[in-house]
Write a structure and sequence with these properties.
Layout (H helix, E strand, L loop, with lengths): L8 E5 L1 E4 L2 E3 L2 H7 L4 E5 L11 E4 L23 H17 L3 E4 L1 H9 L23 E5 L1 H8 L7 E4 L9 H4 L5 E7 L3 E3 L3 E3 L2 E6 L4 E4 L10 H11 L3 H14 L1
Parallel strand pairs: 1-4, 1-5, 5-6, 6-13
Antiparallel strand pairs: 2-3, 7-8, 7-9, 9-12, 10-11, 12-13
Length: 253
């Protein structure tokens, strides 16, 4: 069986990029092309069985109707294409067992899907990166989980990440959920009237399903070892690729 046949196929849902443009930003295409063949998904197509990873990209705010909250005064509009994919296509991919990687908005969409509410405006208590390589948030890494479930050689207890978001998720809120496992969270404790003292969560994994989300933007950074490892671990769990490997091994046997 050729290596080309086993090359991972990565799908990213497209959105409006301007008055006469529709597609995916170059930074996403550049970053995820390192891992395989990137395919742009349009909203009118049903789920594809040949995908080894679905990427939920960053973007505008999630409608508060998705998590039964009163809209905050600082909330912005949602993207109709990403919102449609979230409501109609994402559940089908999750049910099919396709690995999913969420970034920023996509991470928040996954949290909402599994019942985690959002902090609607963390900007007054949170920094903001000047560029993709401006890693301003120091985070604690769940090293034990990383070693046991993601990467056996992982040794780092801390890392730093960039930040380009005004909404987020509290680590304390996630700890009340039995399906999601925290991967990394900010060392500094934040406080606001809505959530009290909390740590902003920067990443989580599903305890059983091939699903990982990160609040930061790996595609904006010149390098991101942690994200690379997370993406590789998801692709390795692709049912399509695993089946191809099984067929190849049976032929060689």
């Amino acid at each position: 069986m050729s290596n080309k046949t086993k090359k991972p196929v990565i799908g990213i849902p497209a959105w409006g990029l301007g008055e006469n443009s529709f597609g995916v930003q170059k930074t996403y295409l550049e970053y995820f092309s390192k891992f395989g063949q990137v395919e742009i998904l349009t909203p009118n197509e049903d789920i594809r069985e040949d995908l080894d990873l679905v990427v939920l990209p960053g973007g505008q705010d999630v409608q508060t109707t998705h998590y039964n909250a009163v809209p905050g005064f600082m909330n912005g509009s949602s993207d109709p294409f990403k919102d449609y994919f979230f409501k109609n296509n994402l559940p089908k991919y999750i049910e099919a067992g396709t690995p999913v990687f969420g970034i920023c908005l996509g991470y928040q969409q996954l949290a909402i899907y599994f019942g985690i509410p959002l902090i609607q405006n963390i900007t007054p208590y949170h920094g903001y990166s000047e560029d993709g390589d401006k890693e301003i948030n120091k985070c604690v890494v769940n090293a034990k989980y990383m070693q046991e479930n993601i990467h056996p050689s992982w040794t780092y207890a801390t890392t730093t990440v960039n930040t380009f978001h005004h909404q987020g998720i509290s680590k304390q809120a996630l700890e009340r959920n039995t399906e999601l496992v925290p991967l990394l969270w900010e060392k500094a404790v934040s406080w606001d009237r809505q959530n009290g003292a909390h740590n902003v969560l920067e990443g989580f994994a599903h305890a059983k399903l091939p699903i990982i989300g990160v609040q930061f933007h790996p595609e904006k950074a010149s390098s991101c070892d942690l994200s690379d490892i997370l993406v590789d671990s998801l692709i390795a769990r692709s049912p399509r690729l695993q089946k191809l490997i099984e067929v190849e091994n049976s032929i060689l046997a």
